[in-house]
């Protein structure tokens, strides 16, 4: 049960009231019968326990799960329920059943219960006999276990172990030959299917020898092992894919996660996981948890892409300085940066841009936080300043000569916990200082006061602590000598002659200073000279005489000054730019205004205008009489419906004669009889619900305009669709399209209008920054600020409710138009009063929307409470976590054409060339997308079944939903996609897109065979558990389809989460626009979650820390690299509040920020258009930043981008395929005829055959690579690689005639 | 059409076993009387009937062989013969050249007609005829038959090889882009050709190798991989000591002289010499230790600095500055004449492709792959896979004229084979098992050299581990 405070109850009720009010009006409108159904078609979700019970089919489980979940976490519940099975509470008869039921139930629970596959991923469980006579448990995994994700796979073993121990069954003791069999078999499986993570031999050995449960499996592959065959205790010689997956991707791949669960549940016999994490068999492995301290990690720098700059090398001086804390807009995989940092770093980082990090996670979203320190820069002329505000940053940006330090990065403790990363030392900062001085001590007013405090024994206040540990002892001596020898104090400023070595040391110390007249001038010099061991007269103190010879710099400074100091630098963190964010209306392609079919007659734009002047194409038999045919008569395929009132057959949702709502009727395509169900009982064929009608679209359009009272001339273009896609071929009222066209908004395939936004978390707002008046805020229920004071002015900070969101300005403008459309619709079409009455942006505040992740089935109710200038979707982390995302399963094979040749990759591999997801489990926020490294193409199919080559515009990674759908076709193609994935199916001659979950056995899908599109039938469509954390997708230009595993399917229709107006969803959404589903709540295309329960959403949100401050212990734990878990009890996180009303409110943050929309709003990366410009900007910035090695950046870009491209293209050139210019048929090699030999209807195509890889595409990066090896100090190896490639290219294409050009010519 | 099994049974009836070559020959002749004539002529103590028992069949060489002075001559594949690709039209020339040359070899054995001639008119349906085509696609039907799409310059044709016919065994080894002849009947609707017999441009059954009339020995090695951390330097030194004493006059190296740079990702981790120039210098110094009287013939491989696309040009001058005088550079492939004995040197990259395409093939039996090349008379039949091809006006990878010795490498496993008078040598490596091979479970046979007596063509393998 959701425990909440009365205030939250009230808030929730307020949302429900709004929802109910909207539903009431929508019902009234729907009752007019103009829509496919008289009802509002958005159902409400059921809870997890119910889903599990249905899934595993064990009565009574749901009640027990609810009971357990109220007491413990889900993982614990998954284990604990095993106790009930052991006690035979659900009628189990024997041990086998107990094991079977408990493992499956736990799996269902762990995979969120939305899937039907925990049942299929485990073929059976069995008991074997050890050589000592004891019994052991065998779990037979089957192929579908893949869809459960590594973590759930691994946990299923844990569950098995738990129950096994309870039942008194022994551990598995493998025979040596069995261990070897595992090693051979997993390797072999890897060559067949390529595992995401292939454990080393030692790792496999460690797992098999120690895992208490025997991970067994069914034969999933045709191939057999060659070595260890015919083993007594292994049933098959064939490769067991399920076993390999669980062992490799589950246990080995998720060892860290598994270990944290083992610890949480106090399970014995899993200590070997430590060894596994430490890296079995690799004693010198880069292990962070054992030896204190961390090593630089350069993983984030691998696969460096041209144009995405590096901001800091791993743990390099001058890199990002860690500051622990959470601001209002960080946590949940975002990190805070001073807006000045964002500007100084070339504007590549805008609000919402993704950044790849060295640690603790792999990536983070970028948000502005102005209460942390900005970068320190040297300006032309030598002045060094720290830039802490946006205004200064913009003013000095053009004068920056060198970026000495990129500033602080604000990372919440929860991020370390989430990623199971050890804590690391933070730079000394005010909040830490405050924890160490006696309570009540105030921060010093000036330097002198700080020194007085320090002399009393406190640590020196951070603002006056310089970066002593960044310089050497020699430099300290040198500075002391220089200052004491030649320095003087003039007008409260330390002045000494400019000297390059001293200047360098000062720059490392990051002490602000000026240079003029050949003199260095330091204003804040007192702590500085104290640190150098000089007294007020710049004379060396006595302490110099006792200075230890071998002291570390910081220790020496402490000795010299007699003050306590802490390191200001702490641990530096490396980072580079990831992908930029974006935010825009969701559009289909071509974008329609209404879902009204116009067939071919609508022209390329599918417009009513075009259709109205359409005349039947005159064919060879045309007679004179046909000549004067009237325009606008078109033939379209629509649903067949009958009016229950007067019996009229129509396609309209409301009978034109009597105004009654019509119902669809099914007809058997074979015998022509009307049938009640979906199949003809006599002919046993699926019944259809369609008819071809001839329609005078011109007249109908004119009538609709008249009904709406709109002048014909006022709308230039109204676009419909080519055909309707649902089984019932339901048509949307023409009027809706007209009204949308009037507002210039577009409809999505389900009848709604959506706007895509990238997710960023936000827990608190200021009325002023979201540009909403205080009175309005009070109306919305925000009557108190965060400190409990009455909300009076716009500067006060208020806590954002979990379901309140901000709209970006562009989104708000679009949504205003949508409200106007809906009001028009209500008044002019339904004859009801208006609902929104929105004129300005402010009027939008308080209205409800539905938030959706791409391709999800669950929408979340939200309320608009303000706006942001940034192009992002700021909302409560719970709101983001409540949405889920989807796409293709990673093993899906796609064919990619890179300009020269075709290659088949698993989609995961292809997408990963843009993203480093080699450390799974860290990419938390869900979808990441990027443009592909270079132009790639893939085959697409258009709505007529024509094949095209289209460009891939982006690749994306999404968080996997709990369930996926797997299809098998008659020709044995297999495809696993997310339930909401767009698929294409044949619909009498053309293709339409439908959601995967709506596909049924027997549907015809286009597949690619032998280079042509042919139809194939779906044999099975089953829901399987999602076995990976992620799913992948491509965005393909124009047709938005692609070939996956040989099957043409739709692609992801958007990368970001989106929102739609609540009323839009209620009024205009209809399931019957989408292909029919198999029933049940989980299959519903849209389930609305009206209230967020933190216990039921994505686990990451539980690690958001919500305290006002951190304890001293956190900072101290950081100094010794303690595990994040060690201080967990001291830190206020959402997880600790679960089950109490405080789980939803009373959140705080440690660092405020004055404006959540500060900093650049659009990344330089997206503003620069060509790769040359981006590369120039990237290298330019690299040369400026102290923490970046420009030569290395150049080398990395060469290695991971340009050389790879050159090599790939050259090799592809000599293996290239050919294609026909006329019909686009692809040939594996040049046909001997030299012409296209494809048979096309009447004869042979005879088109010209051209190569698919051209000299130009091979040489694309050759010149720029040559120029780069000249300009930058790249390694000899790299230089020679370019040279050798150059030679090979020349030998392939012959000598070049062009003259040499400089790097500048390409940049 | 005679059935292979039937033929074998006829021989077995007379207590004779029969060599598959003979069976094939009888099938090709399609003359049942021939069996009786062979049986009649077989000497009494014969157990296996082989080609020499066929009446009128005398192993012969066609033509004379002119001996040159000096004794080594590069017949084809000398420096500068592989050109660059000028235009896409080269691809058309390239495959047409392959078709006409290989097709010509088949045409000697059966009379064929153009595919278009067969399919255009209904006249030939149900009538036995022969067509020659290049395979464009092979697949197995759901019922287990094989269908090959073949084409000539006029048209294409689907050919069905039924699994219950003797021809099926041949069809199982069909690979894309080889040229075959098929005899059979067109279906009634003219869309499918039912094959009964298949011809490859195979070596004639009566082929007899040329033997040198003067004494001479040649040593064959490959895949030295200098610069790799798995290069076996000690073994190499032992080899150099041995070759001086061995009496050999020729050393042939079939590519991968050095490990190269950037050949595979992360290669720099496995190199002891990371500089490509220094790698060749080291190689040059290594072969300088070999007595100067021994001629060293060196071809490039896929690890070498030249382009990957075959034919690969000779290693450029700037890398060979430390190579001794007695070293001759050839392209990959190259045909070299040693005292009249012809050696076809080919690095062997296509073996990777063939192992993947031919059922039952494995790296351990590298000799078998050379037989497959000889049967197809092509070094790299399958286009567009792992072997990059630089299409020129003519196909340099065709095996014509027939060599006495086919010398390959690449797979790092020594393999020897005798096929219809041609000696196949896959020459192993001088590199121990690499990390990649370990992962792929490839067990190389390092540090072996094969010596062949040019007067007898008898190979002998020496190991220097």
UniProtKB/TrEMBL annotation, chain A:
- Sequence ranges assigned to domain Hint in this UniProt record: 885-1009, 1010-1057
Read off the InterPro entries from this record: Hint_dom_C, Hint_dom_N, Hint_dom_sf, Intein_C, Intein_N, PolC_DP2, PolC_DP2_cat_dom, PolC_DP2_central_dom
Keywords, sorted A to Z: DNA replication, DNA-binding, DNA-directed DNA polymerase, Exonuclease, Hydrolase, Multifunctional enzyme, Nuclease, Nucleotidyltransferase, Transferase
GO annotation (BP), single:
DNA catabolic process
Q: Name one GO molecular function term.
A: DNA binding
**Keyword Transferase on entry:** yes
Q: Which reaction does it catalyse?
A: DNA(n) + a 2'-deoxyribonucleoside 5'-triphosphate = DNA(n+1) + diphosphate; Exonucleolytic cleavage in the 3'- to 5'-direction to yield nucleoside 5'-phosphates
- Top-rank taxon, per record: Archaea
Task: Describe the protein's quaternary organization and the partners it interacts with.
Answer: Heterodimer of a large subunit and a small subunit.
Similarity comment: Belongs to the archaeal DNA polymerase II family.
Which HAMAP family has this protein been placed in?
Answer: DNApol_II_L_arch
Say what the protein does: Possesses two activities: a DNA synthesis (polymerase) and an exonucleolytic activity that degrades single-stranded DNA in the 3'- to 5'-direction. Has a template-primer preference which is characteristic of a replicative DNA polymerase.
The molecule here is called DNA polymerase II large subunit
The species is Methanoregula boonei (strain DSM 21154 / JCM 14090 / 6A8)
TrEMBL record, chain B:
Q: Which SUPFAM superfamilies does the record match to this protein?
A: Metallo-dependent phosphatases (SSF56300)
Domain of life (superkingdom): Archaea
UniProt cross-references to PANTHER family, sorted A to Z:
DNA POLYMERASE DELTA SUBUNIT 2
Catalysed reaction equations from the record: Exonucleolytic cleavage in the 3'- to 5'-direction to yield nucleoside 5'-phosphates; DNA(n) + a 2'-deoxyribonucleoside 5'-triphosphate = DNA(n+1) + diphosphate
What is the recorded function of this protein according to its Swiss-Prot or TrEMBL entry? Answer: Possesses two activities: a DNA synthesis (polymerase) and an exonucleolytic activity that degrades single-stranded DNA in the 3' to 5' direction. Has a template-primer preference which is characteristic of a replicative DNA polymerase.
Give the organism the record lists: Methanoregula boonei (strain DSM 21154 / JCM 14090 / 6A8)
Q: How does it assemble?
A: Heterodimer of a large subunit and a small subunit.
Q: What Pfam families does the record point to?
A: DNA_pol_E_B
Say which family it is in.
Belongs to the DNA polymerase delta/II small subunit family.
- Which residues, if any, are the signal sequence? none
Record's InterPro entries?
A: DNA_pol_a/d/e_bsu, DNA_pol_delta/II_ssu, Metallo-depent_PP-like, Pol2_small_arc
| UniProt-recorded name of the protein | DNA polymerase II small subunit
Alphabetical list of NCBIfam families matching this protein: PRK04036.1-3
Q: Which GO terms describe its cellular component?
A: DNA polymerase complex
Q: Which CDD domains match?
A: MPP_DNA_pol_II_small_archeal_C, PolII_SU_OBF
Give UniProt keywords alphabetically. Answer: DNA replication, DNA-binding, DNA-directed DNA polymerase, Exonuclease, Hydrolase, Multifunctional enzyme, Nuclease, Nucleotidyltransferase, Transferase
One annotated GO biological process: DNA strand elongation involved in DNA replication
Q: In this protein, which residues make up the domain named DNA polymerase alpha/delta/epsilon subunit B?
A: 219-409
Query: What GO MF terms are annotated?
Result: DNA binding; DNA-directed DNA polymerase activity; single-stranded DNA 3'-5' DNA exonuclease activity
What EC identifiers does the entry list? 2.7.7.7, 3.1.11.1
């Amino acid at each position: 049960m959701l425990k909440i405070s009365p205030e939250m109850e009230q808030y929730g009720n307020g949302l429900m009231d709004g929802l109910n009010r909207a539903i009431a009006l929508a019902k009234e409108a729907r009752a007019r019968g103009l829509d496919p159904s008289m009802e509002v078609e958005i159902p409400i979700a059921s809870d997890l326990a119910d889903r599990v019970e249905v899934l595993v089919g064990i009565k009574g489980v749901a009640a027990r799960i609810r009971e357990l979940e109220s007491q413990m976490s889900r993982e614990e519940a998954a284990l604990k329920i095993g106790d009930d099975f052991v006690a035979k509470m659900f009628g189990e008869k024997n041990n086998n059943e107990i094991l079977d039921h408990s493992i499956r139930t736990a799996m269902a629970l762990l995979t969120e219960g939305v899937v039907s596959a925990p049942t299929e991923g485990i073929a059976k469980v069995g008991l074997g006999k050890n050589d000592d006579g004891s019994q052991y448990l065998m779990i037979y995994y089957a192929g579908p276990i893949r869809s459960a994700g590594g973590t759930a796979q691994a946990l299923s073993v844990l569950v098995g172990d738990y129950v096994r121990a309870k039942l008194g069954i022994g551990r598995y003791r493998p025979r040596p030959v069995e261990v070897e069999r595992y090693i051979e078999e997993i390797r072999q499986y890897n060559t067949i299917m390529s595992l995401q993570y292939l454990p080393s031999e030692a790792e496999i050995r460690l797992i098999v020898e120690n895992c208490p449960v025997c991970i067994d499996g069914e034969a999933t592959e045709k191939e057999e092992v060659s070595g260890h065959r015919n083993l007594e205790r292994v049933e098959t010689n064939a490769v067991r894919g399920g076993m390999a997956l669980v062992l490799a991707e589950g246990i080995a791949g998720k060892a860290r996660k598994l270990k944290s669960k083992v610890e949480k549940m106090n399970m014995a016999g899993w200590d070997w996981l430590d060894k596994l994490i430490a890296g079995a068999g690799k004693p010198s492995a880069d292990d962070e948890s054992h030896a204190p301290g961390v090593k630089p990690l350069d993983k984030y720098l691998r696969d460096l892409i041209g144009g995405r700059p590096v901001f800091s090398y791993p743990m390099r001086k001058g890199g990002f300085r860690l500051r622990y804390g959470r601001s209002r807009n960080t946590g949940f995989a975002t990190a805070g940066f001073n807006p000045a940092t964002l500007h100084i770093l070339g504007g590549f980082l805008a609000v919402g841009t993704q950044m790849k990090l060295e640690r603790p996670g792999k990536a983070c979203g970028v948000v502005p936080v102005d209460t942390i320190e900005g970068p320190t820069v040297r300006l032309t002329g030598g002045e060094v300043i720290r830039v802490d505000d946006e205004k200064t940053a913009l003013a000095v940006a053009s004068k920056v000569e060198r970026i000495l330090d990129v500033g602080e990065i604000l990372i919440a403790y929860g991020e370390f916990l989430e990623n199971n990363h050890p804590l690391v030392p933070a730079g000394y900062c005010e909040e830490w200082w405050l924890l160490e001085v006696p309570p009540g001590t105030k921060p010093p007013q000036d330097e002198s006061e700080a020194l007085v405090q320090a002399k009393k024994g406190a640590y020196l206040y951070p603002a006056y602590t310089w970066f002593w540990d960044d310089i050497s002892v020699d430099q300290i001596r040198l500075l002391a000598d220089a200052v004491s020898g030649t320095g003087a104090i003039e007008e409260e400023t330390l002045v000494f002659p400019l000297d390059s070595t001293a200047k360098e040391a000062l720059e490392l110390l990051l002490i602000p200073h000026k240079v003029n007249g050949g003199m260095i001038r330091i204003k804040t010099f007192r702590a500085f000279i104290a640190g150098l061991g000089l007294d007020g007269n710049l004379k060396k103190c006595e302490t110099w005489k006792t200075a230890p010879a071998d002291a570390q710099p910081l220790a020496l400074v402490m000795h010299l000054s007699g003050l306590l100091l802490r390191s200001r630098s702490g641990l530096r963190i490396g980072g580079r730019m990831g992908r930029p964010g974006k935010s825009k209306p969701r559009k289909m392609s071509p974008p329609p205004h209404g879902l009204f079919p116009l067939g071919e007659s609508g022209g390329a734009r599918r417009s009513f205008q075009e259709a109205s002047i359409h005349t039947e194409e005159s064919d060879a038999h045309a007679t004179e009489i046909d000549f004067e045919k009237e325009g606008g008569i078109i033939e379209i395929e629509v649903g067949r419906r009958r009016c229950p009132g007067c019996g009229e057959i129509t396609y309209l949702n409301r009978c034109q004669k009597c105004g009654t709502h019509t119902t669809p009727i099914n007809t058997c395509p074979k015998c022509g009889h009307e049938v009640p169900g979906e199949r003809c009982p006599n002919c046993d064929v699926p019944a259809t619900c369609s008819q071809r009608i001839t329609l005078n679209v011109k007249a109908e359009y004119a009538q609709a305009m008249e009904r709406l009272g709109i002048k014909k001339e006022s709308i230039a273009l109204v676009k419909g669709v080519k055909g309707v896609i649902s089984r019932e071929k339901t048509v949307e009222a023409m009027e809706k399209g007209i009204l949308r066209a009037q507002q210039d908004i577009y409809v999505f395939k389900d009848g709604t209008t959506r706007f895509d936004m990238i997710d960023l978390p936000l827990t608190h707002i200021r009325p002023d920054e979201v540009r909403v008046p205080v009175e309005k805020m009070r109306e919305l229920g925000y009557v108190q600020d965060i400190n409990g004071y009455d909300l009076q002015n716009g500067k006060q900070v208020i806590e954002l409710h979990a379901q309140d969101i901000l709209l970006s300005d562009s989104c708000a403008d679009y949504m205003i138009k949508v409200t106007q459309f809906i009001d028009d619709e209500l008044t002019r079409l339904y004859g009801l009063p208006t609902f929104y009455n929105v004129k300005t942006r402010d009027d939008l505040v308080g209205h409800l929307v539905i938030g959706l992740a791409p391709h999800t089935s669950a929408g979340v109710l939200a309320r608009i409470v303000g706006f942001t200038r940034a192009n992002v979707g700021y909302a409560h982390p719970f709101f983001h976590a409540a949405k889920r995302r989807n796409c293709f399963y990673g093993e899906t094979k796609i064919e990619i054409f890179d300009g020269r040749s075709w290659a088949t990759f698993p989609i995961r591999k292809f997408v990963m060339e843009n993203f480093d997801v080699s450390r799974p489990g860290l990419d938390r926020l869900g979808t990441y997308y990027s443009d592909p490294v270079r132009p790639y193409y893939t085959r697409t199919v258009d709505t007529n079944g024509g094949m095209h080559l289209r460009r891939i515009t982006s690749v994306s990674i999404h968080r996997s939903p709990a369930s996926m759908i797997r299809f098998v076709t008659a020709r044995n193609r297999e495809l696993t996609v997310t339930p909401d994935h767009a698929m294409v199916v044949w619909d009498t001659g053309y293709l339409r897109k439908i959601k995967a979950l709506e596909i049924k056995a027997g549907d015809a899908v286009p597949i690619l065979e032998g280079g042509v599109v042919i139809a194939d039938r779906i044999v099975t469509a089953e829901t399987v558990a999602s076995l990976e954390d992620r799913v992948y997708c491509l965005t393909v230009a124009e047709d938005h389809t692609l070939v996956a595993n040989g099957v043409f399917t739709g692609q992801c229709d958007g990368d970001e989460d989106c929102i739609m107006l609540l009323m839009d969803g209620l009024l205009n959404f209809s399931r019957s626009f989408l292909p029919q589903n198999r029933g049940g709540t989980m299959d519903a295309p849209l389930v609305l979650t009206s209230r967020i329960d933190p216990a039921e959403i994505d686990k990451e949100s539980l690690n958001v820390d919500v305290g006002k401050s951190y304890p001293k212990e956190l900072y101290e734990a950081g100094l010794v690299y303690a595990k994040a878990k060690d201080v967990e009890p001291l830190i206020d996180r959402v997880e600790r509040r679960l089950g109490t009303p405080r789980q939803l409110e009373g959140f705080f943050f440690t660092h405020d920020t004055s404006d959540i929309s500060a900093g650049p709003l659009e990344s330089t990366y997206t503003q620069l258009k060509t790769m040359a410009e981006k590369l120039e900007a990237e290298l330019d910035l690299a040369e400026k930043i102290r923490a970046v090695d420009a030569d290395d950046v150049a080398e990395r870009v060469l290695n991971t981008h340009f050389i790879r491209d050159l090599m790939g293209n050259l090799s592809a050139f000599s293996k290239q395929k050919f294609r026909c210019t006329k019909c686009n048929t692809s040939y594996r090699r040049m046909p001997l005829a030299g012409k296209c030999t494809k048979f096309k209807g009447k004869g042979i195509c005879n088109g010209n055959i051209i190569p698919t890889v051209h000299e130009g595409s091979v040489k694309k990066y050759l010149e720029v690579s040559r120029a780069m090896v000249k300009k930058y100090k790249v390694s000899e190896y790299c230089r020679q690689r370019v040279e050798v490639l150059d030679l090979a290219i020349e030998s392939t294409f012959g000598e070049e005639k062009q003259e040499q050009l400089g790097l500048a010519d390409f940049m | 059409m005679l059935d292979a099994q039937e033929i074998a049974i006829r021989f077995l009836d007379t207590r004779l076993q029969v060599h598959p070559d003979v069976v094939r020959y009888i099938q090709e002749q399609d003359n049942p009387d021939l069996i009786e004539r062979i049986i009649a002529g077989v000497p009494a103590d014969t157990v296996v009937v082989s080609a020499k028992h066929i009446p009128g069949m005398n192993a012969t060489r066609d033509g004379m062989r002119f001996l040159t002075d000096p004794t080594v001559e590069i017949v084809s594949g000398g420096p500068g013969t592989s050109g660059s690709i000028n235009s896409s039209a080269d691809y058309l020339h390239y495959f047409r050249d392959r078709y006409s040359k290989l097709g010509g070899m088949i045409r000697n054995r059966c009379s064929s007609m153009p595919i278009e001639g067969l399919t255009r008119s209904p006249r030939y349906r149900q009538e036995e005829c022969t067509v020659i085509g290049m395979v464009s696609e092979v697949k197995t039907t759901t019922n287990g038959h094989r269908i090959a799409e073949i084409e000539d310059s006029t048209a294409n044709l689907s050919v069905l090889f039924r699994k219950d016919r003797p021809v099926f065994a041949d069809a199982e080894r069909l690979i894309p882009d080889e040229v075959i002849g098929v005899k059979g009947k067109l279906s009634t609707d003219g869309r499918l050709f039912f094959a009964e017999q298949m011809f490859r441009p195979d070596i004639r059954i009566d082929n007899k190798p040329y033997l040198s009339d003067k004494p001479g020995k040649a040593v064959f090695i490959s895949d030295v991989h200098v610069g790799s951390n798995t290069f076996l330097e000690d073994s190499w030194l032992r080899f150099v000591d041995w070759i001086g004493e061995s009496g050999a006059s020729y050393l042939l190296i079939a590519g991968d002289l050095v490990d190269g740079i950037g050949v595979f990702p992360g290669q720099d981790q496995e190199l002891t010499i990371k500089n490509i120039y220094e790698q060749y210098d080291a190689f040059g110094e290594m072969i300088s230790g070999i007595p100067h009287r021994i001629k060293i013939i060196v071809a490039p491989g896929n690890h070498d600095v030249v382009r990957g696309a075959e034919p690969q040009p000779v290693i450029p001058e700037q890398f060979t500055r430390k190579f001794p005088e007695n070293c001759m550079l050839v392209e990959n492939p190259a045909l070299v004449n040693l005292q009249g004995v012809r050696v076809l040197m080919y690095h062997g990259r296509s073996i990777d492709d063939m192992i993947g395409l031919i059922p039952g093939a494995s790296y351990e039996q590298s000799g078998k792959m050379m037989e497959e090349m000889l049967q197809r008379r092509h070094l790299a039949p399958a286009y567009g896979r792992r072997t990059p091809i630089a299409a020129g006006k003519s196909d340099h990878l065709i095996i014509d004229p027939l060599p006495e010795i086919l010398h390959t490498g690449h797979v790092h496993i020594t393999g020897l084979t005798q096929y219809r008078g041609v000696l196949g040598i896959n020459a192993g490596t001088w590199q121990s098992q690499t990390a990649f091979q370990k992962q792929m479970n490839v067990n190389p046979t390092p540090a072996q050299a094969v010596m062949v007596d040019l007067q007898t063509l008898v190979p002998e393998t020496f190991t220097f581990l």
